[in-house]
Amino acid sequence: MKIAVCIKHAVDESELKMDPGGSPMITGAAGKMGTFDKNAVEEAVRLKSSGGGDVTIFTVGPADARKSMKEGLAMGGDRGVLVTADPVRIDSLSVAGLLAKAVQRDGSFDLIICSEGSSDVYTGQVPPMLAELLGFAYFGYAKKLEVSGSRIRVERSLEESVEVVEAPLPAVVSVVSEINEPRYPTLIQIMQAAKKPLEEVPPSALGVETAPKVVVRSMSGQGSNRKKVMLDGTPEEAAAKLVDALRAEGVIPR
Ligand SMILES: Cc1cc2nc3c(=O)[nH]c(=O)nc-3n(C[C@H](O)[C@H](O)[C@H](O)COP(=O)(O)OP(=O)(O)OC[C@H]3O[C@@H](n4cnc5c(N)ncnc54)[C@H](O)[C@@H]3O)c2cc1C
What we know:
Layout: E1 2-6, E2 9-11, E3 31-33, H1 37-51, E4 54-60, H2 66-75, E5 79-83, H3 92-105, E6 111-115, H4 126-134, E7 137-148, E8 151-157, E9 162-168, E10 171-175, H5 187-193, E11 198-201, H6 235-249
């Protein structure tokens, strides 16, 4: 089975700083593979191990995205395709368009695995757009995947229920984090990943219009005002004052 995994080199939220106006400082921020994209890679590698085939990792990202690609290759991907465009400057439809063309150019894939949402912007738009552009079946929020011959069976994790659906391949699936536990590559796997093929493709080679239709006007963090109350006294006195303060705020019952 020919499997593609789409991963995003997302902004590392643990490293993100805000400017004095409360906007995230994206330029120069550290990046990492999207948290849930590790589940997508893990699932692809598991399917390859049980049913054979190969796994190609695709990303649309800046040169720095090679780091995330190498991580995916170390986890068990066979080769990578990096479309060298910065997702900060284009919209979801352009990302999906570039991925669709890159996937088509690369051959006929049976299954494309994404995650439910990137760990930075999390619009959840790219996977269904990709399916639509490719004309593939789409299953969102998969918590379990089974491929049998040319059919796929998916358990979809919904808010209050689980839906079980089937379709013939090819398909695009977005997975949720509960689907698996991503592996940590060993040192040997990390060293081997450095020798795996990683192709860079400029967007111009794919003929996709990337001028964004959607313009993000502003992005700001949710402010939270702390009360900065200091409780003095012995530990027992401070604890009693804390309980009184929490009661006064209605956090715990009187
Ligand atoms: C500072 C900043 C400015 C922005 N400005 C704009 C703007 O002006 N207009 C606009 O429309 N958007 C803008 N964006 C959003 C940006 O374009 C999105 O990152 C992009 O549209 C992808 O959507 P997403 O991250 O929500 O991915 P989701 O749709 O949440 O991702 C779901 C899954 O799709 C796959 N995927 C997503 N992105 C990629 C990728 N690059 N490569 C490979 N697979 C991928 C992964 O499997 C991922 O888990 C901006 C973002 C930032 C940080």
